[in-house]
Design a protein that fits this description.
The complex is a heterodimer of chains A (367) and B (221). With 367 residues, chain A is α/β, with parallel strands linked by helices. Chain A has helices spanning 6-20, 29-33, 39-42, 46-59, 73-81, 101-108, 117-132, 144-151, 156-163, 172-198, 227-245, 260-267, 282-285, 312-329, 348-360; strands at 24-27, 64-65, 136-142, 202-206, 249-254, 273-276, 294-299, 333-340. The chains are: A alpha/beta (367), B alpha/beta (221).
Chain lengths: 367, 221
């Protein structure tokens, strides 16, 4: 029996209306955060982090308080749960020796345990935004597939073997992959639950690694289940189930290089907003994406620090082109960055200038 | 197929060893590991195995990748098979019976921990007969220069995946060129392009591993 969640579907209208109003947005908290000398302390203080999120939302004239994109939070959470030093963050990986039944049981039972400092700060910043502004508080987490690429030393190998039908009993790396996915998803669900409790009305799930580097596109199938369904969608459905139960919306971000089929498969998660990277042509994507999913993106903001290739004039040209072509497509669209716009030492003012141009320039034949 | 052709086939299609379950239609068969060992036992020279078997395979793989007939996962399987085969050949580099084309020092630049592209390039270049020194990730200019001092004729490859770290390439290139202006420096990684390469004074940019192999081949010839 399909239960139509009228309230849930009405929330989708909020994002469709933002698109109708031709709003523009960026993932820009890093730019504002790095203006502060004590930014390393701020990210551990939820109130101060919340202040920065509000400042970014205000300065970029947005309605949604997009958080600081930090895709290490869940790995930090995992390490603290396992009693490991955070200095080991980048070097820690699951393998056959350390993904024991004991470890997995510990992770599974950790749902209500205390939070790591970073995740606690993120949750508190959401509370702060909710209590001190009228902006929509948005949470964020890394997606299960992308998390796995941080948790395995050589993720492409077992993912590929898995996609070729190799089972966990035939290859230990595939066994580790499957066990790691379960553990990773539990940590992510905990992160999401706590952010929802803090007041998040939408969660941005970031799956930048669900792309054609990690998943060979020539083995994907339009009909039937393939590795994308089994390793990307399957674990993300657990997230959408949790979000659905709590009337919280899914924003899905994948800035990796994708094929049309990968984009179509991502749409099965039915996010309110689908954020794509600059490798995609959004007005062509509009033809393959359901009309109630708002497309977001995808100015090549990673190139904003390169003046030779990305002049101010080019930024305006690309913004105008994207807006005009998306208007012609008729698909709901919010213009924005292809990903998090990072502050780069020595290039801050250059990047900010281009960001402001992108957010404020007028489309010539429209509006 | 003779044994050299079998080695080429195994590497081309990613059959690492007998225990490897990939490719599915080659389960239980000897892989690159067993066949190279056997070829040496049958008195094939290491040079013949490397040049007529292994490098031929990697050239096919590189071509297929450039033509988008295979993708990174398949390339990685071939590189792993090549790596396994190379374990039997490496001892012969030291005694001079196999000539390597040169030394290639590669690393992901300071502040950056991404290594997929760097690892693939390292494997492809090694598979094409170069001595590869992989410095890993988060590599400072001091470490590159340390290797340059040890291998004065080496070519250096820099990788970066983030806009925040690609800017570190400029400093590293400057430091290398200050020590040895003639040393060739290649750059690569998702945010990098030809214009950036030219701007920072690097010698070559490649968007994929095969481009690196071609450039190095042009230097070696």
């Amino acid at each position: 029996m399909i239960i139509f969640n009228q309230h849930f579907e009405m929330q989708r209208d909020y994002y469709l209306n933002l698109a109708k109003e031709h709003k523009r947005m960026i993932f820009g908290v890093d730019l504002i955060l790095k203006e502060k000398k004590n930014h390393n302390e701020i990210v551990l203080n939820g109130d101060k982090l919340g202040e920065v999120v509000i400042e970014a939302t205000k300065r970029f004239n947005m309605q949604m308080a997009l958080p600081w994109m930090d895709l290490d939070v869940e790995k930090q959470e995992l390490l603290e749960l396992l009693g490991l030093d955070l200095a080991a963050l980048d070097g820690f990986h699951f393998d056959e020796t350390n993904i024991s039944e004991e470890t997995r049981a510990l992770i599974k039972k950790s749902g209500h345990s205390s939070l790591s400092k970073r995740l606690e700060a993120n949750c508190q910043s959401i509370r702060y935004v909710k209590e001190n502004s009228n902006y929509l508080p948005v949470g964020m987490c890394i997606g299960p597939f992308s998390f796995i690429t941080k948790l395995l030393r050589d993720p492409i190998f077992p993912v590929f073997l898995y996609s070729m039908g190799v089972t966990g009993t035939e290859d230990p790396s595939v066994c580790t992959l499957e066990l790691a996915f379960e553990a990773a998803t539990e940590v992510i669900l905990k992160s999401i639950r706590r952010q929802i409790e803090a007041g998040a009305k939408a969660i941005c799930v970031c799956e930048p690694a669900a792309n054609n580097v990690y998943i060979s596109p020539d083995i994907l199938v339009e009909d039937g289940e393939d590795v994308f369904d089994k390793l990307v969608l399957k674990y993300n459905y657990r997230i959408t189930e949790l979000l659905g139960k709590n009337d919280v919306d899914l924003i899905l971000h994948d800035c990796g290089e994708l094929t049309d089929l990968m984009v179509k498969k991502l749409c099965k998660l039915h996010p309110v907003i689908l954020s794509l990277g600059s490798s995609r042509n959004l007005w062509k994507d509009a033809r393959i994406i359901p009309g109630d999913i708002v497309l977001f993106g995808n100015l090549p903001t990673k190139q904003f620090l390169m003046d030779d290739e990305m002049t101010n004039e080019k930024v305006v040209e690309l913004t105008n082109e994207l807006e005009a072509k998306m208007k012609k497509s008729g698909h709901p669209f919010i213009l924005g960055s292809e990903c998090d716009v990072l502050s780069v030492e020595g290039y801050q003012s250059k990047i900010m200038e281009k960001v402001n141009l992108m957010l404020t320039c007028k489309c010539h034949d429209h509006l | 197929m003779n044994i050299i052709e079998q080695i080429t086939y195994c590497i081309e299609f990613g059959k690492i060893d007998k225990n490897s379950p990939f490719p599915p239609d080659m389960r239980g068969q000897d892989g690159a590991h067993e066949l190279v060992k056997k070829a040496l036992e049958e008195a094939h020279t290491p040079d013949e195995i490397l040049n007529d078997g292994m490098i031929v395979a990697m050239e096919k793989v590189g071509k297929k990748f450039s033509e988008k007939r295979i993708f990174i996962p398949q390339m990685l399987m071939s590189a792993k098979a090549m790596n396994k085969a190379m374990e039997h050949i490496k001892p012969y580099f030291n005694d001079g019976s196999v000539q390597q084309k040169g030394t290639f020092v590669i690393g992901t630049v300071s502040g950056d921990l991404h290594d997929i592209g760097k690892n693939l390039v390292a494997m492809m270049v090694e598979g094409n007969g170069w001595n590869v020194i992989d410095l890993g990730v988060d590599v400072s200019h001091e470490k590159f220069i340390e290797k340059l001092n040890k291998y004065p004729d080496c070519v250096i490859g820099l990788s970066a995946l983030l806009t925040t770290t690609m800017v570190n390439m400029e400093k590293i290139v400057k430091e290398i060129k200050a020590v040895s202006p003639k040393t060739k420096v290649l750059v690569g990684g998702a945010p990098v392009n030809k214009d950036f390469c030219n701007k920072i004074g690097a010698d070559s940019y490649s968007p994929d591993p095969q481009g690196v192999v071609h450039y190095l081949s042009s230097l070696a010839s």
